[in-house]
Design a protein that fits this description.
alpha/beta, 10 helices, 8-stranded mixed sheet, TIM Barrel
Length: 300
């Protein structure tokens, strides 16, 4: 991370904590909900299968920037399916950087060739070893690993959603992150139980067991892009929600924190590690602040 970017983000954090402000800093633009997969844990794919046009996406990026957002994510559906004429995902990342966003990340399922060195991080969904991943996402593991091998940059971070199917595969994903070329780290979420996927949710005891495995992996120097200090809050769902510093925009509609905020009661069962980390950060939790500084400077 550039020193200038770090300073600007630090100023935002200090102002937010001291003045108890709720201004946004992180924003997500949904490029499409079209996806080539039908993952068992996903409730937001192919609802419309509309690919939003470039001019609309650019307008939404500008809208978020003008609201103060400086960390930008592109999400789907599957982001690498996005195209408008000759414009591709690479053009959007470049546009975002030129617009002034300090960090630009992309979320993908990894089934398309990965040529995106312009992104700060590519959050790539890997949900276990071959057996467990394929049980969640279909027969895609080998394709993904080949695409990672042939990626044009080392800016990949595994992104694992832990659920009842793959909860025993955390260690496998951690070791794969440690030992795979072009992968910087691994980041975790617990499954957030939309009504149609409630059977995949973890109990408090299961979350505790998962966090214990992640902590052990950290002790073994596996590059984990999460904050250990937030784990007790995630286990007990005791962190404040929603995160007012995070916004999502899709087809002109802005949601605070995420799309799941529209589902009654779902915030109380939130499994997104970043939501816990950011809400605790901006509440002035000293342990979270110290750990986030070390983690972000190391992996971004």
């Amino acid at each position: 991370m550039k020193i200038s970017s770090f300073i600007e983000l630090a100023k935002f954090g200090i102002k937010t904590v001291l003045l108890r402000k709720k201004d946004p800093i992180l924003g997500t633009v949904i490029l499409t909900d079209k996806c080539n997969l039908k993952c068992k844990h996903c409730s937001v794919n192919n609802i419309t299968a509309v690919v939003y046009p470039y001019d609309q996406i650019k307008k939404e990026m500008r809208q978020l920037y003008d609201m103060g957002v400086r960390i930008l994510f592109f999400c789907g559906g599957e982001t690498f399916l996005w195209r408008d004429g000759q414009k591709t995902l690479k053009d959007l990342v470049t546009e975002a950087k030129e617009m002034g966003f300090l960090i630009v990340n992309v979320v993908t399922n990894g089934t398309y060739p990965i040529d995106l060195p312009e992104a700060d991080l590519i959050l790539l969904s890997l949900d276990g070893d071959r057996e467990h991943h394929n049980a969640v996402r279909g027969d895609t593991y080998d394709t993904i690993m080949e695409n990672i091998k042939n990626a044009t940059s080392d800016n990949i971070c595994f992104y694992m959603a832990v659920n009842q199917i793959n909860k025993s595969a955390i260690r496998d994903v951690c070791l794969t992150a440690r030992d795979t070329k072009n992968v910087r780290a691994v980041s975790f979420n617990f499954h957030t139980p939309y009504p149609d996927t409630r059977q995949l949710a973890l109990s408090k005891e299961e979350k505790k067991e998962c966090c214990d495995v992640i902590i052990q992996m950290m002790k073994e120097n596996v590059p984990v892009f999460n904050l250990k200090s937030a784990f007790p809050y995630l286990i007990n769902n005791s962190f404040p929600t929603p995160c007012h510093q995070c916004l999502v925009i899709e087809n002109g509609k802005i949601s605070v924190c995420g799309r799941c905020i529209d589902v009654e009661g779902l915030c109380d069962e939130c499994g997104y590690f970043f939501v816990a980390e950011y809400t605790l950060l901006f509440r002035g939790n000293i342990k979270i602040i110290n750990e986030m500084l070390r983690t972000y400077l190391k992996y971004i």
